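Side project, low priority. Logging it here so it doesn't get lost.
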Amino acid sequence: MRSACAVYRWLGPILGALLLLSSCATLREDVPRGKPSIAPAPDPAAPLGVLSAEHIKAIGGASAFRLLDSGQAALAARMALIEQARHSLDLQYYIFRSDTAGKLMMDALIRAAERGVRVRLLLDDMYSPENEPTLIGLDAQPRIQVRLFNPFRVRGNAPLGRFMEFLTSDGRVNRRMHNKLFLADNHFGIAGGRNIGDEYFQADDAVAFRDLDVLATGPVVQELSRAFDKYWNAEQVVTTRALPRGSESRQALRDALKLEVAALRTSQADSMTGFQRIDVLGAAHGSGWGPWTGGAAEILIDEPGKTNKEVKKSDLPVGQLLRHGREVRRELLIASPYFVPGEKGVEWLRQIQMQDGVKVRVLTNSLAATDVAVVHAGYAKYRRPLLAAGVQLHELKPLREAGEPALLWHDQRADGEVIHQFDPRTSAVLRGYINVLSLLPIEGEL
């Protein structure tokens, strides 16, 4: 009898949750996948093509790179690329918020599309269900396409429904796309740690993430575009037409969004004028962005299908990255908000530290600064083993949040910069959670 009562105690909440799940709006399965498309060939006569050629000639490298350290410079660079684009804009992000920075960027994208630029926006679906009207309104604009990676079946403002989907999807919805790319005319690209939102661009008084991006131009951008195309055309991607129909038409959402972002642009006119004065794309470096430097780059990117199958760690980009790390001759620097090395990571760092003349330094969030306490708990147990291995550990105070995952190493050949989150989830299947990432190792002094 007691066992039967126990079953009923569990069965009631489960049936209730399933009933709630069945009543939620769900993803439409009768909508065909979007048509495949690819980035256009770079036009050397376009404004960004001319500017790219000038930078490549000036630095004498195959590709040119510039670090974007400050949030203001990072936003200014993106807005300038949108303004100067003539053919295509391709954006790939984990988060694209509908806050001030996000809406101002939407307004700029809409105006770019109106002058003939094709815009493709690919977003991970983790944060989009509660933002569907805005995304549908943006997708309904002429020459703008919005697609979602690995979408939830449960839609709308239904956190309990999505939680139940987490429990019942056999790990599928746990597997997210963390790639962050911004590509303009196949001539300029931005890769790094920043999503799109006020907190990433120093525009939020309450929260400020300390992030890092690389602005690139040259052949490396065409490689990044091919990587974007692979995700854009992946089978894990759906269009916004697969989202459930609401009470408002696509045209109504399109018109409402256009009016909203135009009004915001007017109210933020002074701020936008200030951003336009920041010449992040030009030759001179300034406060918040470094000088242009030449070098070669290697694109390391996870396959979109990583979310669907077990993969060997050695076949993942992080495996290639670890092999690069063994070539360190002077210094390895890691800055990561979520630093959970695991036992194998500690051993890898110990082996690097043991090489003659090599130093290993790590910067991560302190417990007071982190926004994910459970990750800090995962890191804390490795403090003593890391220190015993000779690694220099530094923890950031909660004055500013460390948000950029970055790994830098120095050897006799080059100084390298890689955008990477040092967490076992990025390198292997762990409890069913997989991130997909893009990495950009650069040979050259940044």
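Brief comment: The mean pLDDT is 82.
Revisit when time allows.
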